[in-house]
Design a protein that fits this description.
The protein has 396 residues and is α/β, with parallel strands linked by helices. A seven-stranded mixed sheet has the order 2-8-7-6-5-3-4, sandwiched between helices. Helix 1 runs antiparallel to helix 8, helix 9 runs parallel beside helix 13 and helix 10 packs across helix 13. The longest helix is centred in the N-terminal third of the chain and has 21 residues. The structure holds pyridoxal-5'-phosphate. The site of pyridoxal-5'-phosphate has 14 residues, from helix 4.
Length: 396
């Protein structure tokens, strides 16, 4: 099997599992307990917090552990919105191609009376700091823009957007779930006030993440109860997962240049190979994209059929369209970059990991080319395109 769906989740590394085991088998005390055994767990917890802070240029006090990226996004956005509302500021700026953890939180805030402005994303999948600057108003309380997009892998100009927000005195949150462990992050240098990350996207365990909030930002609780996480997130800390996340992030950050140097040429080989398929186009900027992300639209193809046939050939991939989740709507990300519905339905995301080989890349290229040729040969829609009854969207 070739696993090419690392944007959905990653395999835990052996080193991460080894790091976690002692916190299940031996140091299983509750970090809130006062006896020495509990305090041993507490020390391990604070060590993990310091490690994670160091990886992103933050201070340990600025790190809150959450159940993952979704919770961190929710907490950041609700906190900033409600802080703003107290000062009469109820305008929030984001983009049309955010993850649903952000978009659905913003929809809730809209029902509470906030005004949500979703900026258009350019065809290359990037928004500019200039556009953010122009959108900021007197009553803007939050700008939330993702670091890297989970479907098309494009990387946003985070430092520049952060600078604009600083200049205007507006809080800036970034969903960095796809970036953490894959790209360098320094919250201070990049002018980031709040940031979300999730361990299972960089070879850590599922169900654990981090919200970084700059000193002085008052967070609102989503989970009420005990006084863990300095009163900002109740619930006994998941110490094995937290230690696993810290190990995974440390390993990823110390290896980030090699990771990128190894993966980028493999990504580019895959892009070159798939570009040879007629009537296809890469989604998102050719250069400003994650080292492991390849995303294409193919004319005359249904994403689901493509995935099922690739599965038969032992390839795990993903498609933008969400039919499997009960909706026939194509991906909001592909629509946001201006893809028409009929090609947005025929998308394929391959998110490769560092273990992939050149031989496997070539196997994927062959498999995708064959499956597409087959699906087109049996598609009445494709016949219409070939007969000229419908216009082609892409050049050959
Ligand atoms: C995966 C993902 C999330 C959600 O993270 P979970 O830890 O699975 O809740 C949020 N944002 C982006 C961009 C993601 O890729």
């Amino acid at each position: 099997m070739i696993y090419a769906d690392n944007a959905a989740t990653t395999k835990m590394s052996k080193a991460v599992i080894a790091e976690m085991l002692p916190y299940m088998e031996e140091v299983y005390g509750n970090p809130s307990s006062l006896y020495a055994f509990g305090q041993e767990a507490k020390e391990a917890l604070e060590e993990a917090r310091a490690d994670i802070a160091a990886c992103i240029g933050a201070e340990p006090k600025e790190i809150i552990f959450t159940s993952g990226g979704s919770e961190a996004d929710n907490q950041a956005i609700f906190s900033a919105a409600h802080l703003g509302a107290k000062k009469g500021k109820k305008h929030i700026i984001s983009t049309a191609f955010e993850h649903h953890a952000v978009l659905h939180t913003l929809e809730k805030l809209k029902k509470e009376g906030f005004e949500i402005e979703l900026l258009d994303v350019h065809k290359n999948g990037i928004v500019t700091a200039e556009e953010v600057k122009e959108a900021i108003r007197e009553d803007t309380c939050l700008v939330t823009i993702m670091y890297a997009n989970n479907e098309i892998g494009t990387i946003e100009p985070i430092k520049e957007i952060g600078a604009v927000c600083r200049e205007k005195g507006v809080l800036f949150h970034t969903d960095a779930v796809q970036a953490a462990g894959h790209l360098k992050i320094n919250v201070k240098e990049q002018n980031i006030d709040m940031l979300s990350l999730s361990a299972h996207k960089f070879h850590g365990p599922k169900g654990i993440g981090v919200l970084y909030a700059k000193k002085g930002i008052i967070l609102e609780n989503l989970i009420n109860g005990g006084g863990q996480e300095r009163g900002k997130r109740a619930g006994t800390e998941n110490l094995p997962a937290i230690k696993g996340m810290a190990k995974a992030l440390k390993d990823a950050c110390s290896n980030i240049d090699q990771y990128s140097a190894r993966l980028t040429p493999l990504r580019d080989r895959l892009i070159e190979g798939l570009n040879k398929i007629p009537y296809s186009e890469l989604n998102g900027d050719r250069e400003k994209r994650l080292p492991g992300n390849v995303n294409f639209c193919f004319e005359g193809i249904e994403g689901e059929s493509l995935l099922l046939l690739l599965d038969d050939k032992g390839i795990c991939a993903s498609s933008g369209s969400a039919c499997t989740s009960g909706s026939l709507d194509p991906s909001h990300v592909l629509l946001a970059i201006g893809r028409p519905h009929e090609v947005a339905h025929g998308s394929l995301r391959l998110s490769i990991g560092e273990d992939i080989t050149e031989k496997e890349i070539d196997y994927i290229i062959t498999a995708v080319s064959e499956v597409i040729a087959y699906l087109r040969s049996i598609s009445p829609f494709w016949r219409d395109l070939e007969n000229g009854k419908r216009p082609h969207v892409f050049a050959e």
